[in-house]
Amino acid sequence: MNRSTGPFDVKMTPQESDPAEGGVTLARLALEKRYHGALEADAIGTMISATTLVKGSAAYSAIERVTGTLEGREGSFVLQHTGVMERGTPSLRITVVPDSGTGALAGLTGTLEIVIEAGRHSYVFNWDLPA
Q: Which domain of life is it from (predicted)?
């Protein structure tokens, strides 16, 4: 398993959302990201989220297509995000969608972690490619 790290920039643009019902708000956002470091890539995607009346309880799902280079290998792949916050306790899983890799990234597998410190975003990408 390989490990790559670096910073990234993210822009989230609100889209038309559903009306709140029963205290639950559903929202949609367009994602634009720029990864730097070992992963030099641009990404676009869509996020959907649900927030509840209970402070600290929410969930989101997102899909993003990442296009660029990973450790010099050019291609694209898709990431799936599943995030849940239960009364302030977060859980986040981001995985490479199976068989979504193209070009020199065909067959890519892995997971990506997001780190936020002092308002700055970075990633830790644990990945593998077939020999």
A: Bacteria
